[in-house]
Amino acid sequence: MSILFVNESSASIGISENRCVVKYADGMRKLIPLEGLESITIMGQAQMTTQCVQECLKRGIPVAYYSKGGSYFGRLQSTGHMNAERQRKQCSLYDSEFAIELARIILGAKLKNQMVVLRRYEKSRGIPVDEQLNMMRICKQKIDDCSTIQELMGYEGQGAKAYFEGLSMLIEPAFFFHGRNKRLPRDEFNSMLSLGYSILMNELYGKIEMKGLNPYFGFLHRDRERHPTLASDMMEEWRAVIVDATVMGMINGHEIQKEDFTMDLDEPGCFLTKNGIKLFLGKLEKKLKTEVKYLTYVDYSVSFRRGISLQMDMLVKAVETGDASIYQPIEIR
Fold first, then answer.
1. 297-306: per-residue pLDDT in tens?
2. 277 Cβ neighbours under 8 A, 6+ residues apart
3. What dihedral angle (degrees, nearest 10) is formed by the CA atoms of 285, 295, 182, 136?
């Protein structure tokens, strides 16, 4: 399976002989068989033909739209995987012990994964972050004893603050940042994080929808208008594993430069340039295709992308039985 990223505003996307065809202004063409196309991501103002839109809807191929700076607009999707009975069950579990237990499982894994990422870069940089790691351990222990979503989110927030403090100490000095900021990103590190999280959210949204669940009925994150809270829930265990590790690897590995960012776009903030987006998307896609053995319930290697799909299968089982303990999060080592 393949993901098509198009970040050329002058490009056009169409259909020919059972293939998706991308035509660029310089005359170049990219051809991808529709049978192997999992999704399309458009960044900027590339055009898609009506025939291509219809074919994507018929085949259940989601199309996501972003600004040229990486701000998420929305997605084109079919209703082919709608499962009303499963969604009614999902909705009924919103205010229940199921939601609290699932949140404990997910946030515990998130903090553990963040600590592993910190320790990896602590070792490679030779800079101790003992204080931050200790705070995260305390927060993880507290999460195990929480009985409300509010308590859980409080300790998660404290752990996240310590985590980003640690990352700021371990990053290349030229890319130093002052904590996590979202709208709009004020530095290069946060710019890549925001785009990476947005793409990861889109991946999860599609997998959730394919399993017949509703991306807007979350458990950990409370209802928010126009926000897919279940996708936010399921993203927590993957943030550090996929996006944070990719960003830190690119910066500390000198795979991206300050020149690959700009502050001169119409929308205020720091954003990747066209070349920066190309570099980042290539690295992130390579990460998603990386095969690992981090899932405890399978005895073979799977790509991170396949792992996300398997996690959605686990979530479906947990929802249908009403037993959150069935869900086993990904935990890296």
1. 998 999 999 9
2. 7, 43, 70, 195
3. -140
